[in-house]
Amino acid sequence: MRPDGRRWNEIRKVTLTGNYLHYARGSVLIEMGNTKVICTASLEEGVPQFLKNTGQGWLTAEYSMLPMSTPTRNVRERARVGGRTQEIQRLIGRSLRAVTELAGFGERTVYIDCDVIQADGGTRTAAITGGFVALVEAFQSLRDEGIIEKIPLKDYVSAVSAGVVNGKIILDLEYEEDSQADVDMNFVVTGGGNFVEVQGTAEQTPFTREQFDRLVDVALKGICELTEKQREIIGALH
């Protein structure tokens, strides 16, 4: 039995609360079990130097964990962002750019900010899933104001973890499971089932091709459920 009583192929309870903050173009509180992340989308005129005069926009992401998002206090990353944080920020940015038509909103920059207010495993995957919802809300706002004609997105995208714990394949690891996993993987997948990124590590014993295939299958099940949750709050992409 898993710590929270879930079946091996079951994701945690997912709650998406849209339009969560007043000032952001798009914002969502995503809760996956005890993991809670606030994701916002904001917009600024202008793009990085390498995109100037191309007519193309840019999307980037920032990620942070509040000091008491974990049982012991995290020190705020003030002067310098740590390696883990940089990795996660880049992952979120890559994942959302993969489904975004960057030429569809002019020479503007979209910022996706993901702040973990409570961590119990899967914070990066929750940030991607919630960040997409915030991004859609922001584009809907721009469309409603007549700034853009259509939502510049090609597909949904979400992310989920899967792993091997005590020899068993499980979906959507919480912290207790993640901390003792033999294999830990993160899958970023579009609503259409195409892979954006797969991150996988064998902590102790290398995993087999059969195990990998089973991890893919269970992760895709989770992605389908997360995509449906996204659809419930933001509807179709048009």
What key phrases describe this protein's structure?
238 residues, alpha+beta, five-stranded mixed beta sheet, four-stranded antiparallel beta sheet, 4 helices
Write up this protein.
The chain is of the alpha+beta class. The chain has one domain: GHMP Kinase, N-terminal domain (Ribosomal Protein S5, domain 2, 2-Layer Sandwich), CATH 3.30.230.70. The protein is globular and about 55 Å long.
Biggest β-sheet description: 5 strands, mixed
Q: How many domains in all?
A: 1
Please identify the structural class as seen in this structure: alpha+beta
Overall 3D form = globular
Name the average pLDDT. 95
Topology, number of strands? 9
CATH class category name: Alpha Beta
Oligomer: single chain
- So, CATH architecture? 2-Layer Sandwich
Rg over alpha carbons: 18 Å
Query: How are helices and strands ordered from N to C?
Result: EEEEHEHEEHEEH
Task: Indicate the low-confidence ranges by residue numbers.
Answer: none
State the end-to-end distance.
Answer: 42 Å
